[in-house]
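User: Second chain of the day. Same drill as before.
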Amino acid sequence: MSQIRPLIPLLVTAGILIGGNGLQATFISLRALHEGFSASTIGLVGTGYNIGFAIGCIYVTRIIRAIGHIRAFSALAAIASAASIAMVLLIVPWFWFSMRLMQGLCFAGLFAVVESWLNARVTNSNRARTLSVYRFVDLGSVTLAQYLIPSVGIDGFQLFAIISMALSLSLVPISFADRSSPGAPEAIRFDIKTLWRISPLATVGCIVVGLTNSVFRSLGPVYAQGIGLSVTGIATFMSVGIFAGIVLQYPLGAYSDRLDRRLIILVSSIGGLAGCLFLALVAGSSEWRNFVGIFVFGAFCMPLYSLCSAHANDHAANGQHALVSAGTLFFWSVGAIVGPMFAAFMLDRFGPRILFIYMASILFLFMLYTLQRMTVREGVPTARRSMRFRNLLRTSTYFNKLATPPGERDKQ
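Assistant: Same format as last time:
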């Protein structure tokens, strides 16, 4: 812990940001329902965040290189805080879309600043410990933040103010961190054609994750309210799905390192499909059955992004791993932009059950595509794989570097 102590301000800042972002995603959907927004409008508002996030991923490195970590973080946190509190002043769809777009751009930059700063400060001796603490911070902050919603309530301005305060307070620990800002991060190149050539399956898989997981985060509260869950039940529903994401991460990852990784991607798709069908056809309005179904969905679907990234890295040549990291995040953003809009339109027309029928259809098609790819290309033998499975957060491309063990970092 003595080695990690200097990093605590950055980890606290990350916890505030991740918790605030997780709280905001659920709360905005519920508040929009309360204000009379249709499901398709809520999906469009959620898409605004993902559009901003995609733009931020492309341009954030230029911002950091131009003005440095501290100034970039301060400016982005101030803008995100202002956008959060502004949403209570004008409750109309176009304005909320604009503010969520601005928040997405800012959060892409904020996560990149924190994670590139952490990456510059960790050493090989404390990397694994730091990563473990970071993952605990991620899971704990998002889960606990969900329960602020039933505690405070979705009426009034209180939660808007809490989110804005959290973003403003995130400046405090990072301001008390080491005064020496790290050097400018290296530029990140986006080359989507190269990623497709490296691995079509990984490319499609990341889009599928965006089409499904982002829909759960944006419209899961709409589904849960539509089947009659209380505000506390909605918070639990979302928390169970998020928490479930860590349960099978390491077992699936360990097997993917030993077997054909596409086989584990196929298993994850089948498991996620089963969870979706259970929610759509069996769970009904039962609270506990819905918790079981979303647990199965989260346990199998949440690791898909990391599995697809690992599969792409299996086929990447030396020097292409950073490009893979940027490309997988970009293609996830593409799916996350399209998914909530289409799913929300379906939700408006056919009711809450259609949400998981839609996701089941996407996963079924991806399952067929995975089987087809397994017939046209041989798997990479274990001995020839340059990188192992890593549990990745979709926060910034710098998390990939942070999660890469020392021996594998030399190959990038």
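The two ends are 28 Å apart (CA to CA).

User: Great, on to the next one.
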